[in-house]
Amino acid sequence: MKTNHKHISKFLSLVLRHDPGKIGLQLDENGWADVEELVSKCQKYQPNLDIELLKEIVETNDKKRFAFNQDYTRIRASQGHSLKIDLKYTPKQPPEFLYHGTVEKFMDAIKEMGLLKMSRHHVHLSEERETATKVGSRRGKPIILIIRSGAMHANGIEFFQSDNGVWLTDNVSPEYIDFQS
């Protein structure tokens, strides 16, 4: 992703996931924003952003953080919100194992309490170890945890999958985490 695209993508993440009020934007109950309003209100902070650039950023974002509706009039973040919204995900059976990337400084808390969603709607998990490694690397040397998601699901714990393939659940108890990875 181009440097300018990355900068705009981070700004869009802030606005569409955490603080739409920063630019005076309103999201609906499902996290959708009007595209024209978003572009207009972003001009003060991102003067180069227009609808075509927004489409390019959404299409080329390697993490598929954003999604348009079918006619490109609405946009939202795919997951990771700290705002109270309902993304309308339906429960789905996960694969037997999922992965989570973290770093050493969080390990004591994870061993004690598991993975908690904290200020987000869900804990984020991935199907590929490589993705978890990238996520963990953002904060230092990554530690990859193997999550026994099949066992969790068998015990009645719900999972969802976002439009960009991220697996979501409310929390992961330490009993379902392999700390020997």
How is the biggest beta sheet arranged? 3 strands, antiparallel
Distance between the termini: 31 Å
Name the structural class: alpha+beta
Q: So how many helices? A: 6
Which series of helices and strands comes N to C?
HEHHEEEHEEHEHEEEE
Protein name: Probable RNA 2'-phosphotransferase
Function: Removes the 2'-phosphate from RNA via an intermediate in which the phosphate is ADP-ribosylated by NAD followed by a presumed transesterification to release the RNA and generate ADP-ribose 1''-2''-cyclic phosphate (APPR>P). May function as an ADP-ribosylase.
Family: Belongs to the KptA/TPT1 family.
Organism: Aquimarina mytili
Q: What would you note in describing this structure?
A:
- With 181 residues, the protein is of the alpha+beta class.
- Helices cover 31% and strands 18% of the residues.
- The protein contains six helices and eleven strands.
- It has helices spanning 3-18, 35-42, 51-60, 107-113, 129-137, 149-154; strands at 33-34, 66-68, 74-77, 98-102, 115-116, 123-125, 143-147, 160-161, 167-169, 171-172, 177-178.
- It has a three-stranded antiparallel sheet with strand order 1-3-2. A three-stranded antiparallel sheet has the order 4-7-11. It has a three-stranded antiparallel sheet with strand order 6-9-8, with no helix packed on it.
- The longest helix has 16 residues, at 3-18.
- The mean pLDDT is 91.
